[in-house]
Design a protein that fits this description.
It is a single chain. By secondary structure, the chain is of the alpha/beta class. The chain has a single domain, classed as Alkaline Phosphatase, subunit A, CATH 3.40.720. It has 13 helices and ten strands. β3, α5 and β4 form a beta-alpha-beta unit. α11 packs antiparallel against α12 and α11 runs parallel beside α13. It is globular, with a radius of gyration of 21 Å. It starts with 9 loop residues before the first helix and ends in an 11-residue tail after the last helix. About 5% of the residues have low confidence.
Length: about 400
């Protein structure tokens, strides 16, 4: 989390200085993207402790990944609370969840480029909005993440800064601003070391699929910390130096108010993990917890302690100039004969689940096709084909790739 200076990340740094930084937000498990994302949506990964591999694709439950107690989206539906997904491309990982069938995605999914405009509507309907970025070349031509805005290596981190700026400024200009809460976080840490050891975790306690377990992990330990900034006009400005501005949110861990010379407004030392997002939404809207993980997780509602919505910047600094030169390069397959990477295999898995929704009677053919994808060129062709089919079916996020 100290890899970049404030000058290199002026957007996120400004939000950190203005609102609240959670410095003990841990990923849900010491593992990769897929199970951590599932914990963000379902407070469980149903036992999945690894990224999809060719074997998973062959035996994939093409109806999507299921959870004993469902997902946050199903819980919101059960309470009559509308939700939306805004995505930067046609294959967001959230689509791998069971329940994200074609009618549901056509109704609830929107393209990320439309978010700022939609937020200007006083009648914006969604109680909960999930934003998933554009993954760049990994989808457009089977390469790496370059030319997206997800802040994955080898992408340019400043494009992710532009995304954060766009979301914040769209929300800040919105009539929804005074009733809003924006959480900026990351699914996992992307590395191997942190000086803060991951603490013990509450296992979800739900039913698991033995086929999902590659490592026998018991989900009794959290993963490495991830950066998280919480943004809301209900987060108070820090008290002046010399006054007592500490709160503990019922955890005894403390929230430090900023003082002169500090680079943050509030630093929240409460222990969180991805289940905390669900816990916060559930307690805010009166939803039942999905698993033991979110039932026992700390929420961050105590951060919203201002007496009234306070003033906040209407605009943020422009992202830094990175000097990256490859943005002007024409997209095209890089090493088309190269074997499919683990990351790319995950997108193939998502595409196969989506294809099964388009062609529900053809699961055997879809499994065989997806399992036979061995090279970058194979994956490029498959992802392009499924994206085009989704576009013809009316999915708003299935737009032709740019650049």
């Amino acid at each position: 989390m100290a890899c970049f200076t404030a000058d290199q990340l002026p957007v996120l740094s400004t939000l950190a200085r203005e609102f609240a930084v959670c410095d003990r937000w841990f990923s849900a498990l010491p593992g990769p993207t897929w199970p951590n994302r599932f914990f963000l949506h379902a407070a469980s990964s149903a036992g999945l402790d690894h990224s999809p591999d060719p074997v998973d694709t062959v035996r994939s439950k093409l109806s999507g990944y299921t959870f004993e107690h469902g997902t946050l989206y199903e819980a919101l539906d059960g309470k009559g609370l509308p939700w939306r997904v805004y995505a930067g491309d046609a294959l967001p990982q959230v689509s791998a969840l069971a329940g994200m069938d074609l009618p549901t995605t056509v109704e609830h999914y929107h393209h990320l480029d439309d978010l700022a405009e939609h937020l200007q509507d006083p009648a914006y309907p969604a109680a909960y909005t999930f934003i998933e970025p554009n993954y760049g070349h990994v989808l457009t031509h089977g390469g790496d993440f370059r030319c997206g805005n997800s802040q994955h290596p080898l992408d340019d981190v400043t494009d992710g800064e532009a995304l954060i700026k766009s979301v914040y400024e769209g929300l800040r200009r919105s009539p929804l601003w005074e009733s809003s809460l924006l959480v900026i976080t990351y699914d996992e840490h992307g590395g191997f070391y942190d000086h803060v050891p991951p603490p013990a975790a509450v296992p979800p306690g739900d039913r698991t699929d033995p086929e999902h377990s590659a490592h026998g992990f018991r989900f009794d330990r959290l993963g490495v910390r991830v950066p998280t900034v919480v943004v809301s006009p209900w987060i108070p400005a820090a008290a002046p130096a010399g006054t007592d501005s500490s709160t503990d949110g019922g955890t005894g861990s403390g929230t430090d108010g900023g003082t002169d010379g500090r680079n943050c407004n509030l630093i929240d030392h409460t222990q969180y993990d991805h289940g905390s997002l669900l816990a916060t939404v559930e307690r805010l809207f009166g939803l039942a917890p999905l698993t033991d993980r979110d039932a026992r997780a700390n929420d961050f509602l105590h951060l919203l302690s201002a007496d009234a919505p306070r003033e906040a910047p209407r605009t943020l600094p422009d992202p830094a100039e990175s000097g990256v030169s490859w943005k002007a390069e024409a997209a095209g397959p890089a090493d088309p004969g190269r074997p499919v990477t683990a990351t790319l295999r995950g997108f193939v898995e998502t595409a196969a689940i989506q294809e099964a929704r388009l062609h529900p009677q053809e699961h055997d053919r879809i499994r065989q096709r997806a399992a036979g994808i061995a090279t970058v060129a194979d994956a490029e062709q498959y992802l392009s084909d499924i994206t085009a089919q989704l576009g013809r079916a009316g999915l708003r996020i299935a737009r032709p790739p740019q650049g």
